[in-house]
Amino acid sequence: MKLRWLAIGSLLFLAGCGGGSTPESSDPAMQSSMPEPESNEVTTKVMDYSGLQMLIESYRGKVVVVDVWSTQCPPCIKELPGLVELDKEYPSDDLKCITVSLDYNGIAGETPEQYQDPQGQVMLILERIGVTCDNIIAADDSETMLSKLELGAPPAVYVYGRDGKLVKRFDNEGEGVTEETAFTYADIKPLVAELVKQKP
Length: 200
Hints:
Mean pLDDT is 79; it is low at 1-15 and 18-39. With 200 residues, the protein is of the alpha/beta class. The protein is built from seven helices and six strands; from the N terminus they run H-H-E-H-E-H-E-H-E-H-E-E-H. The relative contact order is 0.21. It has helices spanning 2-17, 28-33, 49-58, 74-89, 121-129, 142-148, 185-197; strands at 45-47, 63-69, 95-101, 134-138, 156-160, 166-171.
């Protein structure tokens, strides 16, 4: 399983994340550029794809932003502070933010409560950035989760309207995407602002 995950992680990294192969969380230079954690508590829950969809549906009536990321993807981590800023910009009655980490590390047959993050990489990054929204670790393996999300590789951000329907997916897929043309939260914020105005 570990060898399979390493292979998948490498493919994800090459397909969607670019750059070097070392996770950003282990790079001291990158760690120093990450903001210090805030005092709010950072927590995670383990959910499969169905659980994630139920969580999104539970927030019907609000705009929902779902950020799909991985510890093996420096561009994902680079954009997470943008989600934190967005989350702070609106009251919870208008906006709910969710992160979904693809850092599956479970064994088939385990209960969700037994899935672990033994290296602590997910929590380390979330705590340093101060991501206090709903933080999900996918119970499905990354290959399965990406297939269900119809996504080639992270990063990706899904924006849902108040009616619970997907309005737009931001990703770096397609030909010709470079570091300069990759999406950022500056691209996402205007759409969220417009959707928030659409009161139910």
